Description:
The complex is a heterodimer of chains A (241) and B (447). Chain A has seven helices and ten strands. Chain A is of the alpha/beta class and 241 residues long. Chain A has a single domain, classed as Rossmann fold. In chain A, the strands form two sheets. Chain A has a six-stranded mixed β-sheet, sandwiched between helices. Chain A has a four-stranded antiparallel β-sheet with strand order 2-1-4-5, covered by helices on one side. In chain A, a hairpin with a 5-residue loop joins strand 1 and strand 2 (32-43). In chain A, helix 5 (162-175) runs parallel beside helix 6 (192-207). The longest helix of chain A is centred in the C-terminal third of the chain and has 16 residues, at 192-207. Helix content of chain B is 52%, strand content 14%. Chain B is α+β, with helices and mostly antiparallel strands and 447 residues long. In chain B, helix 5 packs across helix 15 (364-401) and helix 5 (65-97) packs antiparallel against helix 16 (409-436). Chain B is rod-shaped and about 115 Å long. Chain B has helices spanning 13-23, 25-28, 31-34, 50-63, 65-97, 102-105, 129-134, 181-184, 197-201, 211-217, 258-265, 282-293, 309-349, 351-359, 364-401, 409-436, 439-444, and strands spanning 107-111, 139-146, 154-156, 170-177, 188-192, 206-210, 227-230, 233-242, 253-256, 272-277, 302-304. Chain B folds into two domains: 47-97 and 312-444, no CATH class; 103-307, no CATH class.
Amino acid sequence: MTESLPHGDTPHEGHVIKLTGVNRTFDSEPPVHALRDVNMTIRRGEHLSIVGPSGSGKSTLLNILGLLDRPSSGDYWLDGVKTGALADRQRTALRGSRIGFVFQSFHLLPYRTVEENVMLAELYRKPRPGRRRRNRGERARAALDRVGLSHRHGFKPDRLSGGERQRVAIARALMSEPALLLCDEPTGNLDSENTLSVLELFDQLCAQGLTLAVITHDDAVSRRASRRVRIRDGRLSQEVA
Amino acid sequence: MKSRHRTAAPDLGPAASRQEQLIRPQRSRRPWLRSAEGHDKGVERPWISPRDLWAEALSGVLARPVRSALTTLGTVLGIGTLVITIGVASTAANQIVGRFDALTATSVSVVVPPPPPSSDALPLVDWQGIDAVDRLAGVESSAALAESDKTAAVQVRANDVVTPGGVSGQTLAVVAASSSLPAAVRGDVTAGRFYDTGDIDRHDRVAVLGDQAAHLLGIKGVEDAPAVFFDGHSFTVIGILGRFEREQRLSTSVILPPTTAKDRLGLDLVNRVLINTSLGAAQQVARQSPTALSPNNAKALTVLAPPDLSKARKGVQGDVNGLFLVLGLVSLIVGAIGIANVTLVTVMERVGEIGLRRALGASRRQIAGQFLMESTTIGLLGGVIGAALGMVVVVSVSALKDWTPVLDGRLALGAPVAGALVGLLAGVYPSLRASRMEPVEALRAPS
């Protein structure tokens, strides 16, 4: 089912994300220009942070990056796929296979064990070769081990601390081997100690070659990134780390 | 890991994708491919294994066991009422209908009253009358029978010798019957033969004994032409008629040809006509035979026909069913509304979860499918429990009333299916609501 794109259309091989001239306006009265001419690339293996105050267009950018929203104009390539012309179902599938989401509020299912929560990531796709349904539990446990939760197998989320919950969410995002880990205020609900542990986990994952995009308003969080992008009034500006 | 996403023959490029479309023309009919300017997007389609869908739905139901249990109640009541109603009705109907077997269902008899004594009128039905009955559609056999009080108890002896102190003979009934009697009583001539029209026409002094009568008289066969004596006449026994299925009392009778009976005993008036019909024709034959037998005096004849089977059954079921069927259906509708309500509440409570699933790659259809499956599961559960309870009640009622419980297998299997269907219908609106949620909005909800 998976076919590659013609090479001519592909942006540079190393780019996981490429935005060119992206605008997003909301049809309200008066129209809200949430993103203005955004150009951005995220290279493979990069740890990028997008910083900005609330109302700056962060969420809009995140929604577009996460294929939850479409730009009003401009092009968005995700992992070499030009997403503008895709139908809803294809965007959904692309979202499920290429992007691992980490949310501020974790979004774990309270009545399922942590393994089951992690396994959800593989639910909505055909099993790939070597990733059989039968072994899904093993892979979930491996993902949990990877985020340092070996001792929490079989737990329900309500018995975990905030930091541990976020780690479960990260394990779930890692489960689908995404091209990009898209984190929306990942430490917004955590105390400083838990924040630290999650940030250290990010560093480790980054060192393993994972591509990370962290959207935050917290400078302490953004300082960990290898590259920082600031967003204000819908415009991006590059910052040197 | 970096090259994982472009494993599928990248060097074939656009040629491969064009070929792909040629081999699978049905894909190109999908609108998104037309709008995709001929690019293959390297994107899988959303897919979920049926087992996973079922597991997700089941865990959704089991996550709130008390709520789910309460939600099933409406369906349990509805399906239970329906099963009880239909089960008890069919059990009761079977009790009534069970008494009618094929024999009684096809037996019609016509009772012929004696002609008014004042006039010298002809008998209402003469011996040739049954020929007209035989011509009626649905009549398989018929016979006329003449009995009288005078000949109901006749001293019959098997020989003419009177032994002092011995039993001088047997008291038996003497009847006259048309030659078609063996077929009409569904009996067998166990020895010899039955008299035929020739015997009748010749006024032969012959008799056929019912098997019990023959036994009582000590006559075992007809090879040596035994005779019976009564009323000062002797008759040659030419046959023994046995294995009566109708008119069993004829087995203790002496049966004479009508002409002979008239000559010797004055037994002439046909007072009964026995008719056998094919299955289902009894009602019609019963209506028509009086006219056929006695066109001028049809009203004077009394027809004994089996009650109409289908009417009997319908009557019973109609009585029992009407009200309770309505009750059951109303409960089902209430149950469906309950399921719809609770599923809708569940959807609203799980907005965050829906958003998450969409983020994980669930399509709208998969979201709708999951909630539809959950409501169907609840309906199915209600159907199974309702059907089981209903059957227990039917069996208990039958046990109390000493009835044989009768339950249609299709009912037992159909009830859970009906429950599932109720759940499915009830889930349509909530799951549409769930599938229409925008992931962006849904993710904003607290999980």
